[in-house]
Structures are given as C-alpha cells and as structure tokens.
Amino acid sequence: MTSLSYEAAGVDYGVIDPLKIAAQEAAKSTAGNLTRHGFRELEESRGESAYVVDTGSLLIASITECLGTKILITDEVYRATGKSHYAAIAQDTLAMAINDLVTVGATPVSAHAYWAAGGNEWFADARRANDLVQGWKAACDYCGVAWGGGETPNLSGVVVDGRIDLAASCVGIVASRERLTLGKNLAIGDAIVLLGSSGIHSNGVSLARTLAASLPGGYATPIEDGRTFGEALLDPTVLYSTVTEAIFKAGILPKYSANVTGHGWRKLMRHAGDFSYDIHSIPPVPAVLKFICSAGKLDVREAYSTLNMGAGFAIFTAPEDAPRVVAIAESLGVTALEAGRVEAGPKRLRIKPLDIEFAGSELTVRA
Amino acid sequence: MTSLSYEAAGVDYGVIDPLKIAAQEAAKSTAGNLTRHGFRELEESRGESAYVVDTGSLLIASITECLGTKILITDEVYRATGKSHYAAIAQDTLAMAINDLVTVGATPVSAHAYWAAGGNEWFADARRANDLVQGWKAACDYCGVAWGGGETPNLSGVVVDGRIDLAASCVGIVASRERLTLGKNLAIGDAIVLLGSSGIHSNGVSLARTLAASLPGGYATPIEDGRTFGEALLDPTVLYSTVTEAIFKAGILPKYSANVTGHGWRKLMRHAGDFSYDIHSIPPVPAVLKFICSAGKLDVREAYSTLNMGAGFAIFTAPEDAPRVVAIAESLGVTALEAGRVEAGPKRLRIKPLDIEFAGSELTVRA
C-alpha cells in the first residue's frame, strides 16, 4: 500500500479552520460580558487549551472536549471479539478534557458527561453501558474530580444508529496566580520534560482506522507486543493531572505545558512566543504506534507531525526542576524523560536524534 | 391519523433510565473527591438541574446540555426553503444549558460550544456556519456570558453525514448562599409564576417531526398565525437568565425554579418535596403548539404532560413577590403570569381551568 497521510485519512483542517477562526473571533468579542458580574477573563487564556475567568477571589478554568472517532474502534473490537473496552473509552473521553485543562495550571474539580446515542438500543446493552459508567467514575476518582452530572440523550437521526458521541466538560480551579501557566513564564534555557503516552491516545485515530481497513486481518492483525492491533489501539489515554498536581505540591511551578494531541509533536511549539525547541532525547515509541508507522509506511517526519510517538504531555520547567519532575512522574507510574531545551527563536522544533525539523508555520492553533 | 404519543414518537424513557440511574449513583459516589481540594459539593444539587460546588469562597454551578433533535427541523427547513435558522438553533442550544443553570440561583458566567459535525462539509457552508457563530455570540451577549471556547470536531461515522450534534456547557456563580434555590425554601402558600415560552422550544421535537412526516404538506403546512409549521417550530427558546438576574437585583429571592422542558408541565412537580401544585390560570398557547395538539390529535392531558403549552419556566416565590416578578419579566419582554399556588401534599399537579391532574408518580427525574 501507499503511505497514509493525515488528510487522506479524512481530517482536513483547511475546511474547518475558517469556521474555527470566525468562532474564535466571535468568542473573543464576548469577553466584556464578564464585567457585568464584576469578573474578567484572562485574555491570555484565549488560544490556550482552557479558558480562565478571574472572579477576583478565584481563577476558574473550564473546557469542553470531545473524544473523536476512537469510539468506532471500540465498537468494532466489541463486535468482532466480544471484548468491551467501554471503560477505557470513558477514560479517553475524560482525558481529552482533563489533560487540556491542566495545561493552564488548573486543578480539575468537576466534570460533566455528554453521551449522545444514535438510538435507545445503545443504552439497552447493559454491559457496555455499565462499563462506560464505571470507567467514567474510575477516571474521576483517579483525578480527584467530582462527576457532577451529564446528558444521555437519544439523538436518533443526528448520531449514527448504533453509535454514541462522547464528550466531557470539566471545571477547574487555578489554586494561585503564580500557578497559572498561560505562557508568560517560558524562557530560553527551560527544560522540556516529556511524559510518556500509553499508545495512540485519541489522536491519529482516522489514520489508524484507514490502516485497519487496508489490512487483510484488520484490527485482528497481531503487532509486536503479541496483542492485536485493535486491542493495542484501545489502551486508554494517560491521565496527567496526578502528575501536574504532585509537581505543584512539591513546590515546583512549571513554566508552560502542552497536551500532545492533534498535530503530534508539532504541539510542542504551542506556546505563542518565538522560541526554538531542541529535542535531544526521545522516548520509546509504543508498539502500536511503531506498527502504524511501519504498516502505514509513514515516514518519520509524518509520524512525529501526527502521532504522539510516546510523548503524551510536555512540561516546560526550569532546568534545575526537571530531574524532580521526572522523578515525581515516575513515582506515580507515568514514564518521563528530560528531552530537550527551549532555545532562542526562530520558532521551530528540532528533533535532533531523528534529524527532523518543523517550522513554526507548520502549527496553526490560534486565530 | 391516530393520536401521537411521546413514546410512539421515539422517546422511550424506560430504556434510558437504568443507565441514567447507574450513572447518577456512580456520579454521587465521586463527591468525596472534592475533599482532596478542600471543597465540597452541595449534595442537594444532585437531582437538581445544575451541579453546585462550594469552594468556601464561591459557589460554582456547572452543566452540560444538548440541543436534541431540533437541528433536524432546522436542516429540513433550510433544505426546502433556503432559509437559515442556524442563529436561532444556536440560541436554542445555549438556552438548554443556561435555563437549567439558572434554576439553582446561578448567574451564568461562561459557556463552551460543542459542535460535532458528520463531516467537513458542514463547516464548508459558510452561510449556516456563520449564522451558527453569530447566533451563539448574540445569545451569549444577551445573557452576559463569556464564550470561552469549544470544539468543532469532524465526527464522520459517529454523527450522521451532513448533520451536526450541538451541545453547550455552562459555568455559573451563585452570588450568595441566600440565593441558592436547591429546594429548602419552598413552602405552602408560595406563588407559581410562569414565564412565557416562544413556541415548542426544544422539547416535544420528536412528536413534531413525526407529525410533520404525516402531513401532506409537511413542514410547509400553514398554521393559524400565517406562517408554516416549520418556520414556527424554529422560533428560538426564550433565554430566561435576564429575568432571573433582574429579579435578584430587585431584592427578590425566589424559593425554587423549574425549567419546563421534557415532561412538559409535569416538570412543575420537579421539587423533591411532597407538595401539591394548584394552577388557577394558564398562559396562552403558542400557535405552533395549538397546531401540534389539533393536527396530532393530542388530548389536553397528553399535551400538558409533554409540551410547554406556553410556559417555558416556572418561578416559585413568596406570594407578595409574585406581582413584582411578573412585572420585571414583562419589562424585559418576557410574558409572565401568576398562575398558581403551592399547597400541602400529596404530590400532584392540578391544572384547574382544564380539569386535569397529574400524580407525583408521573414524573421521575431522580434516581
């Protein structure tokens, strides 16, 4: 087969972006509404991964995020093998919201579930429904989040029959102003610590699905760790809030954070400033991502520009704090690596061990 | 044609409820997680329409709500007439979250958009996309809400091709503890003020769609106000937060509130206690709801148990405050009516002018 590219796999950022930009501009124009309540927004949170409102006494962060199409893999593996991964997909969904929320320095506090089914029969399968509930609860408990409620509508005609659209919203508190990581503290010389991923997480899923469709064995194709491609894809996303909380409790204030999701490692250039990010060490690549790269004939540049390649979250920190950040993460069961350094611009990402480079223009996350 | 019932129109609460109950129980069990942050939940907000966390210095309310299937009507009218009602549907979506949020006494502060499309082409139609954006912004501005951000995923394979799944999350602040309306203040003798609806709002939509499918003229069928059935169905939901804010600013503390959505007027029995609700006056019925009742051959009991029948929101207040609540609402362009009184139990709703009665057991909103 020929090489798979992200656009060929159905994600065309070019078509979505004009709306996204119009929405961002309209959203920005509503900021003044907060003055009616005596509040203000932290303007620098616009364009970051969560929105922060300053009530005077408290900084409230909020976010709504969707799982994406990973549920289609969960459904297909369930259908083909009878094995339910609905607890895992609940964790994936919450991780999309929580891992974004913590990038601004917030402690996740409460979450709502959005589970929109294509018909009542989704909920009639008690086993998967119960797994979804228990997985959601377990992820909340792990992150110290109160599950506040949610919606379980039957959206027959909007959601595809037999499918479910999963999303999460999350509210957090930034415990102190000094804990805010909205960008202003990042500096040349800061260390880049990469926290390990468990696999594909929830990004690059279209690519994985296209690949599965092209394989004679589909999701049942064995990969090098002895499992099937489908099973391995369904390892749930790592929840990073335990690490960000523990770092703060240890007295470390990160300079910036980035959740490595869409755009793969290009997300390491997420900060608005003109810094250059030099990577000197790379984490091991999970077997499932290695398989996607080889079976999908992705070149290394394409792989790192799309997939997390073993790095699910980046913490930018003072160089003297980096070893402790790594140690704290590892003590919580999250692999971590001091991987690089923030240098003077121009904006670019250089992954030196692989001899690849991305220009700042290859990541557009702001209007 | 024979009479339409809600279950025949595709909403079967019996199938969804076991999952809902399991989710509510699991969610409840996560309350203790807040103690990790020094916070606590207001337990009495569970089962109410929004979740409230007490941080000590602030009461934070949050909610996630979905539009439902009203978008299918918007799409069909757009396809058939070329007239875009996507600004209106944005208001409907936000109203689902905001009108629920304010029932607990919260001031809505920020909102996130969740717009999940069945393919990139949804966003490629610049006109409807722009209407959606501008309608969302206008509703935020009207309610004094900051639009914090959102998600615009392409969920091809999960959301039906050509469709969009719309939802909103909202964060609010309860300005003072005395403003909380979680139920403990409601008392015998309190007045029931009903705020007017603009039409179907976003509930009873399955019924309306089933009816349209059975009519020779479909959505183009004229109704008594001279418009088509489709146009009239798309009048956007009234946003009630301007009224709830103005009431508070006037020094009035309502005893309880109920957003009249699914289950129609049975929602007037939403309070957990054993009160009897006696209605002595009913508001005018919007033309579109009159048409549904007559063309769908709904009997009056079925109509009031399913549709809002002209009452979109209920404010329970001390009898001496009721006239001012009515006047404040009317001054803001929201029709209002002192419609009834809270009496001693058993739990039931009596709509005296229509000689109909609902038992408390006919509404189940709590696990």
Automatic annotation (TrEMBL), chains A, B:
Associated pathway: Purine metabolism; IMP biosynthesis via de novo pathway; 5-amino-1-(5-phospho-D-ribosyl)imidazole from N(2)-formyl-N(1)-(5-phospho-D-ribosyl)glycinamide: step 2/2
InterPro entries, alphabetized: PurM-like_C_dom, PurM-like_C_sf, PurM-like_N, PurM-like_N_sf, PurM_cligase
Classification via SUPFAM superfamilies: PurM C-terminal domain-like, PurM N-terminal domain-like
Pfam families linked: AIRS, AIRS_C
GO cellular component: cytosol
Domain PurM-like N-terminal, first and last residues per copy: 47-174
Any single biological process term in GO: 'de novo' IMP biosynthetic process
Superkingdom, natural source: Bacteria
Molecular functions per Gene Ontology: ATP binding; phosphoribosylamine-glycine ligase activity; phosphoribosylformylglycinamidine cyclo-ligase activity
Swiss-Prot/TrEMBL keywords: ATP-binding, Ligase, Nucleotide-binding
Enzyme class: ligase
Residue ranges of domain PurM-like C-terminal in the record: 188-347
EC code(s) of this entry: 6.3.3.1
Catalytic activity field: 2-formamido-N(1)-(5-O-phospho-beta-D-ribosyl)acetamidine + ATP = 5-amino-1-(5-phospho-beta-D-ribosyl)imidazole + ADP + phosphate + H(+)
PANTHER family in the cross-refs: TRIFUNCTIONAL PURINE BIOSYNTHETIC PROTEIN ADENOSINE-3, TRIFUNCTIONAL PURINE BIOSYNTHETIC PROTEIN ADENOSINE-3-RELATED
Family per similarity comment: Belongs to the AIR synthase family.
Protein name, UniProt field: Phosphoribosylformylglycinamidine cyclo-ligase
Organism name: Paraburkholderia megapolitana
